[in-house]
């Protein structure tokens, strides 16, 4: 079966391409023009780079495919990229969806995020039924744009689009070449991580999330959605996660937890500094607000219906560290 993977050069997309190849799929892998293809270029896949915000380019990569895994997304927290982020996360998703409808694609599997389902202010578990996006006003543009894309695709589903929504949690594992988690590991190893945010998240293994995408393409009901995040063992505070990371790399964990107000102030200072340097801030106020909440997820539905698995956090971290070390990073 012929499939397209958008965002194939990214963290989750790269893992998905590898899993699809293992299963024998005929894969067309796409990323933005100029993307680093080194981690997929030795695989038996067709690589076609494209700008999904351009309708004609989106149609070119979709045409001829039976299934489309739309994984592409801009996860930046830098305010200067917000306009481009909306173009990619919202307009790009709509372009891919409309191309799927035009060329009679059997199914579109859309990678959303657990952020779209919000968080429980009482610290409870969020799932596909009780989730409600409640990050409005946070300055959390990534979450806002993914929420907008979700609503747009739901409308297209009513017009005939066969789409399934995937809600990944905080991904950990191999092929993290943008150092999503790696920067924190490096800082912890070098003693440059003095504090943790007060919030928490639902941590998961990127390879298992990729496998769940494939199962969703095969088994899910049109319009359905699946949380692919953590469970009781991997829903935890960032301080707990950083402590486990420190143990794996034989380093000292952060000494204290920084409260919400202090973290937001730090975010403003980082953002101000970024305006002076022209470089992305280490954290901004929107991200600080986001990281101060406890976003815990319930992945039971994906576990039961897709065979999704949730390894313990230490296993996820070790797999990530092993990959970083293979790439020459020292921990």
Can you characterise this structure?
This protein is an alpha/beta fold and 331 residues long. It has a domain of 222 residues: Rossmann fold (3-Layer(aba) Sandwich), CATH 3.40.50. Helices cover 42% and strands 16% of the residues. The protein contains eleven helices and 14 strands. It has a seven-stranded parallel β-sheet, with helices on both faces. The chain has a three-stranded mixed β-sheet with strand order 8-10-12. Helix 2 packs across helix 3 and helix 8 packs antiparallel against helix 9. The N and C termini lie far apart (41 Å).
Q: Pairing-aware structural class of the strands and helices?
A: alpha/beta
| Strands ordered across the widest β-sheet | 3-2-1-4-5-7-11
CATH class of the domain at 2-176 and 202-232 and 296-311: Alpha Beta
> What is the CATH architecture term of the domain at 2-176 and 202-232 and 296-311?
3-Layer(aba) Sandwich
Low-confidence spans: pLDDT under 50, at least 5 residues? none
Q: Globular, elongated, flat, extended or rod-shaped: what is the shape?
A: globular
